[in-house]
Design brief:
Layout lengths: L2 E12 L2 E12 L2 E7 L5 H8 L7 E6 L2 E3 L4 H6 L2 E4 L11 H11 L6 H15 L14 H14 L4 E5 L7 H16 L3 E5 L3 H4 L4 E6 L2 E7 L5 H9 L17 E11 L5 E11 L2 E6 L6 H8 L7 E6 L2 E2 L5 H6 L2 E4 L3 H5 L6 H5 L10 E2 L2 E2 L1 H14 L16 H15 L3 E5 L7 H17 L2 E5 L3 H7 L2 E6 L2 E6 L6 H8 L13
Parallel strand pairs: 3-8, 3-9, 6-7, 7-8, 13-20, 13-21, 16-19, 19-20
Antiparallel strand pairs: 1-2, 1-4, 4-5, 9-10, 11-12, 11-14, 14-15, 17-18, 21-22
Helix pairs in contact: 3-5
Bound molecules: adenosine-5'-triphosphate.
């Protein structure tokens, strides 16, 4: 097998944090190579070094056997190395073909539009993607936007493609399609580097490299390892948990939406007569393909969006005309699906993010002033409880790894809520050890008497945790199922609007 990309002795520090510690590995052509490891283990830093985005403090790279220094991503692209990031780098208001031409033009290639359209059509046919060249990128569902990114890079003829948690934003069906496409690229001789936290994807790779605390702990042929061995290598223990599912009788209704109609920014219906309720001691799942109104539903409950019609009450109080502050004051916690847009202020410290919205709390004030000492010590306790890996609570949140940033939101929202928790994709980007922790936290809150509304594109989350699962399609609840009486396949069909189930969102 030819080595397409070779790293030797890569090390990188950020202040006191050793993000990479003397890592050497070979990436072969014709191979899907997974990078696996806990949140903060160094996967993004390593892939950044392979793509010229991060400059290592020491170590070397060789491409096709020739020593090379990658000073920038543009240089990496010129040498045939492309990367797909978690946050897409597309121009939303431009069309698919315009985005592709911008990418190609940036590399100094002249491409006439007709030839580009032909090439786009051929690539779409090859990978079975239905992408119209004139569609406006921001109007496309996330799964297709990701394909624009991928095709933009394939246009440049890359031989090494690095993908940073590409399936985190995809439905199970879309993830499957993407994995199949990566296998085709591999079969065509490309080298694929895939960062993933999902064991079922990792097990589809050819080789897996496990990182722990910046060190390479193993580089194995996937066929010769197992999910159990990988989780032991990754976190130092076996993670194949079973959860205490206390199916107590649900209590009072803590959240009640009836016949809610909401319009989006462009005047179109985003919630279309939606009704759902959640009781105390109950976790209600919300299953749906991204973009079917989940985010709008959470924002509506948080009173960020105005209602056209309908009623919302929380803990028996009508909040239809209320404000976000009113909702927070009723003890509602909200874990949003986009941690950087809605959940955190990147330039603030961990401590300031953990007490965000609670600055008036007397526990954090000394007369008219903020009690910095109290805030720091509360934040330090939260960090150890939620295992946020960072030097101290004065670290800026935009310096954290994705999973650790998510833990900061969880710490804040789980601690400040008292009755109702709204969780939208709470496990996105988390490693399996942390997911296990989050599951236990949510079940503990349920046992305490919380009502929880949980949206997740990970059907495993819903099947494991929920008492009922409501399926949302085009802004409506199209059915409610008991997780023990359904299968992921049936849920998938309901999510696509192709199957119905008995019951409505008000059924228990
Ligand atoms: N720009 C930066 N400044 C300071 N520290 C950083 C920076 N980038 C990364 N780090 C630190 O380096 C370590 C490795 O981070 P990295 O993002 O590579 O981890 P990861 O394995 O990709 O994690 P995740 O699975 O959570 O995305 C972490 O402790 C992180 O906080």
């Amino acid at each position: 097998m030819t080595v397409a990309l070779q790293a030797s002795g890569l090390s990188k520090r950020y202040g006191d944090v050793v993000a990479l510690d003397d890592v050497s590995l070979d990436i072969h052509a014709g191979e899907i190579h997974c990078l696996f490891g806990e949140n903060g283990a160094g996967k993004s830093t390593l892939s950044g070094c392979l793509y010229g985005y991060v400059q290592p403090d020491s170590g070397a790279l060789a491409i096709d056997g020739r020593p090379m220094r990658l000073r920038s991503p543009a240089e990496a692209l010129r040498l045939g190395i492309g990367m797909i990031h978690q946050h897409f780098k597309l121009v939303g208001r431009l069309s698919v073909i315009e985005n592709i031409l911008v990418g190609a033009g940036g590399r100094g290639l002249f491409l006439d539009t007709r030839a580009a359209r032909r090439r786009l059509a051929a690539l779409c046919a090859d990978y079975g993607v239905a992408l119209s060249p004139d569609a406006i990128v921001e109007e496309l569902p996330v799964g297709l936007q990701q394909w624009v990114e991928i095709i933009k890079v394939l246009f440049l003829g890359v031989r090494v493609l690095i993908l940073d948690e590409p399936t985190a934003v995809l439905t199970p069906q879309e993830s499957d399609r993407l994995m199949a496409a990566l296998e085709r690229m591999r079969d065509a001789g490309m080298a694929i580097v895939l960062i993933s936290h999902k064991l079922r994807e990792v097990m589809r790779s050819d080789r897996v490299t496990v990182l722990r605390a910046g060190k390479l702990v193993a580089s194995l042929k996937t066929a010769e390892t197992s999910p159990e061995e990988l989780s032991v290598l990754m976190v130092g223990r076996k993670v194949s948990p079973s959860y205490d599912h206390n199916r107590e009788t649900p209590g009072e209704i803590v959240l009640d939406l009836s016949d809610v109609y909401v319009n989006g920014e462009r005047g179109h219906r985003v919630l279309d007569g939606l009704s759902i309720h959640v009781r105390a001691h109950e976790i209600v799942g919300l299953a749906g393909v991204a973009g079917n109104g989940q985010r709008e539903l959470f924002e509506t409950i948080m009173r960020v969006r105005p209602l056209e019609a309908g009623r919302i009450s929380i803990d028996g109080k009508d909040v239809t005309a209320g404000s976000t502050r009113d909702v927070i004051d009723l003890g509602v916690g909200h874990i949003p699906d986009d941690r950087y847009l809605q959940g955190l202020i990147g330039s603030f410290t961990i401590a300031d993010n953990i007490v965000l919205g609670r600055h008036h709390d007397c526990a954090f004030r000394k007369g008219p002033f903020l009690d910095r000492k109290a805030i720091s010590s509360f934040a330090a306790d939260s960090m150890s409880e939620y295992r946020v890996a960072a030097r101290d609570s004065g670290t800026r949140v935009d310096r954290l790894s994705g999973g650790n940033a998510q833990k900061v939101i969880l710490a804040r929202e789980l601690q400040r809520s008292t009755s109702l928790l709204l969780a939208n994709q709470p496990t996105r980007g988390l490693d399996i050890g942390v997911i296990d922790y989050v599951y236990r936290q949510l079940l503990a809150k349920k046992a305490e008497g919380f009502g929880i509304l949980l949206a997740s594109e990970e059907l495993d989350d819903l099947m494991t945790l929920c008492d009922r699962i409501a399926v949302i399609h085009r802004g409506k609840i199209v059915g409610v199922v008991d997780p023990s009486g359904t299968t992921p396949q049936h849920l998938g069909l309901m999510m696509a609007g192709q199957a119905v189930s008995g019951g409505d969102a008000h059924a228990h």
